[in-house]
């Protein structure tokens, strides 16, 4: 399993956390922020990003606002209250997953 496969399973969590911290963002801005935060180690492709954004919108986790910028229409995504609850739940699951992985991989260094 490559690192990109591990990230792919976390894409929704990544997007929700970015929107929670930064407020509304458009798709390209999300991809660039992830690239910046990971120092280029993670690049989110449009083919993965936009289906995730659409699913999250359908689930009520995001709202979409179209704005005209430089004679182009740009879609901005923002997190909803339901999305904020989902973020809390997903981050708790991620913390539990990481703690369990630590126990399995290196029990002597387990933080509990």
From TrEMBL:
Residues 15-86 form the Transcription regulator PadR N-terminal domain. Pfam families: PadR (PF03551). This is PadR family transcriptional regulator. It comes from Nonlabens arenilitoris.
């Amino acid at each position: 399993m490559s690192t990109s496969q591990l990230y792919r399973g976390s894409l929704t969590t990544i997007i929700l956390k970015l929107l929670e911290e930064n407020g509304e963002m458009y798709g390209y801005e999300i991809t660039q922020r992830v690239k910046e935060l990971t120092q280029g180690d993670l690049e989110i492709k449009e083919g993965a990003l936009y289906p995730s954004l659409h699913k999250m919108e359908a689930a009520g986790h995001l709202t979409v606002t179209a704005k005209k910028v430089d004679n182009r229409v740009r879609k901005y995504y923002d997190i909803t209250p339901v999305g904020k609850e989902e973020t809390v739940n997903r981050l708790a699951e991620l913390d539990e997953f990481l703690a369990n992985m630590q126990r399995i991989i290196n029990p002597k260094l387990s933080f509990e």
